[in-house]
Amino acid sequence: MPVHVERADLPGIGVRHDILTDEGRRLSVINFRDGGRELALADEDDPDRASETIVLTDDEATALSEVLGGSLILTQLAGLREQISGLFTEQIPVRADSPFVGRALGETKARTRTRCSIIAIVRDTGVLPAPEPADLLHSGDTLVAVGTREGLEHLVRIIAGR
After folding, report:
1. CA-CA distance, 38 to 56, in Å (whole number)?
2. How many CB atoms lie within 10 A of CB 144?
3. Using the 8-state DSSP alphabet, how is residue 39 labeled?
4. Residue 47 gets which letter from DSSP?
5. How is the chain split into domains, by residue range?
6. 80-160 sits in which CATH class?
7. H/E element, 96
8. Where are the beta strands (DSSP E) in the chain?
9. What strands, in cross-sheet order, belong to the sheet with 26-32?
10. Which residues contact residue 32 at a Cβ distance below 8 angstroms, ignoring those fewer than 6 apart?
11. Under DSSP, is residue 133 helix (H, G, I), strand (E, B) or coil?
12. How many percent of the chain have pLDDT more than 70?
């Protein structure tokens, strides 16, 4: 079920977005006019008062959105796997000895050779959803791919250089 997000203008301050969790807690994201932002968790006894706030830098906000977005993609893919017979997802590590380290994703010819789609690249800096053929692969990346079991097994061998 979709989550309802309430928006409240805070005159002279900025904008607050509130989400009411399934546990009945209010989580707020406040975007200040000066560009700053913070997360606030409402007090359980007084929902109009924050029990805790966390100020986020630009880099922290970006990292948090990437982590949440990446985990959401993987959760949705897991659900998709259960819904569609014959379609699977795989997380494929790009090891340091892969022949594709430092090369463009398109050079793998993954879709043509395996009929699998690489739908995200997960790396230390976050998630790159819907990667393009020109995106470079790095040692330590994890490729998130969708396809048949046979196609995914073939893709694992290609990325490993076998």
Report:
1. 5
2. 22
3. E
4. T
5. 5-56, 80-160
6. alpha beta
7. none
8. 5-10, 14-20, 26-32, 37-42, 50-56, 88-93, 117-123, 126-129, 142-147
9. 5-10, 14-20, 26-32, 37-42, 50-56
10. 13, 14, 38
11. coil
12. 86
Distance CA 12, CA 65 (A): 26
Sole residue written with tokens 């606030």: 40
- Residue written as token pair 């699998």: 116
By CB neighbour count within 10 A (0-12 exposed, 13-18 middle, 19+ buried), where does 161 fall?
A: exposed
pLDDT band at 75 (very low <50, low <70, confident <90, very high): low
Between the ranges 4-8, 45-49, 134-138, where is the mean pLDDT highest? 134-138
Measured CA to CA, the distance from residue 55 to residue 28 in angstroms comes to: 12
Predicted TM-score (pTM) of this structure: 0.52
* Cα distance between residue 79 and residue 48, in whole Å: 36
Instruction: List residues bridging with 146 in a β-sheet.
Output: 89, 117
- Residue 145 to residues 74, 118, 157, Cα–Cα distance (Å): 10, 4, 13
Provide mean pLDDT across the span 56-81. 68
Identity of residue 60: E
Joined tokens for residue 34 = 């000066």
